[in-house]
Amino acid sequence: MINQRSGLKTSHLPNKLLCYNYPMALPFSESVTKNGFVFISGQIHLTSDGKLLEGNIEEQTHQVMKNVQGILEKEGLGFENVVKVTIFVIDMANYAKVNEVYASYFSGTFPAREFICVKELPLGAKIEISIIAAK
Predict the structure, then answer these.
(1) Which of 45, 81, 88, 120 has its CA 20 to 30 A from that of 95?
(2) How many whole angstroms separate alpha carbon 85 and alpha carbon 130?
(3) Cβ atoms of residues 105 and 78 within 8 Å
(4) pLDDT per position as a tens digit, 16-68
């Protein structure tokens, strides 16, 4: 869908987000395509039923990466197209564990990245990842 005001291609479903069917209208797009890049909004560890995945940080990171993968695939892309990643966590002690899971989704050159510790994340999530991919 093309936003008439901004001219940007937005990929979202009204009242539902693609990867985890979160049943709430939110004031942002799941992804936006502009000038050959796909900008994916921050993804948290929501499951297909719209609830935060409980469990350890490794399981939560896998869930976030699966959510990201679903959006990339919808755009006809894969992790090999990712050029920039921002990871937000609420506990820097999870750095090594998150890195191990994160690295398993990439082969070859890793994208540019930040790893940022914040006080809290939406809905009480422990990790959030946003992505920029090249078409």
Answers:
(1) 81
(2) 6
(3) no
(4) 344 444 455 668 889 999 999 999 999 999 998 889 999 999 999 999 999 99
Q: Which residue carries 């209208």 as its tokens?
A: 25
- Give the DSSP H or E segment for 113: strand 112-117
CB of 89 closer than 8 Å to CB of 98 = yes
Domain regions of the chain by residue span: 9-134
88, β-bridge pairs: 116, 128
- DSSP class of residue 116 equals E
Describe the strand order of the beta sheet including 82-89 as a list of residue ranges. 9-11, 31-34, 37-44, 127-134, 82-89, 112-117
Q: Partners of 2 in the beta sheet?
A: 9
Q: At what angle do helices 95-103 and 57-74 cross, to 10 degrees?
A: 40
Pick 31 or 13 by higher pLDDT.
Answer: 31
